[in-house]
Amino acid sequence: MKHLFTENIAQILTRDFGDNATQIFEKSFLIQYLNEKTRSANRGSKARGSFANLYAIYVVIEDYIAKKYDAKGDYSEYEGALFTHLLRRQRELPFGSKLQNHALNNRINSEFQKFFPNSEYIPILRNLETNRYWINENLLKIAIGKKTFNIAKTVIAIIDDYVHTKQDAFQRFVKSCEELQEIGNTLLHAKLKNL
Length: 195
Known about the structure:
This protein is mainly α. 56% of the residues lie in helices and 9% in strands. The strands form 2 sheets. It has a 3-stranded antiparallel beta sheet with strand order 1-3-2. The termini are far apart.
């Protein structure tokens, strides 16, 4: 599905992967999921932002990158990120202050499976006993020919760009409201003057 923000995704993929950008888009269920969830980017400030699911992906991948698993190491040996740290980080992000735990606790996985029923992987893995979380690294590593690309930093860049686009839309909305209020005040003053 193509929409206005798809072009932003394509530009980020091209910047990061050059001639392999199109193939990575076509092979990556995670990038395609981001494309689906960012439809509202250019629809104005009142369109639903889908921040809960996007931020669930974001904070788990952010943890993955912070521990440098995108570059080296055996991620399967990692003890996982603590739920409390991930939820706190989600709430620190723009538009995230009111987010609940639902996205981290299976909402994203069930929605992802609806979009991609043939995918053998879900995005977020968790251990209910330890309350630890991991990104499914199988969704981050995209094989093209003999080369494997890790899309972790690209996913972060796409979500960051989406958030920036939504912030701009919100600021334009506020500015329009302020301009309308100023016009209303000017008309009111003119009317009062003529009384």
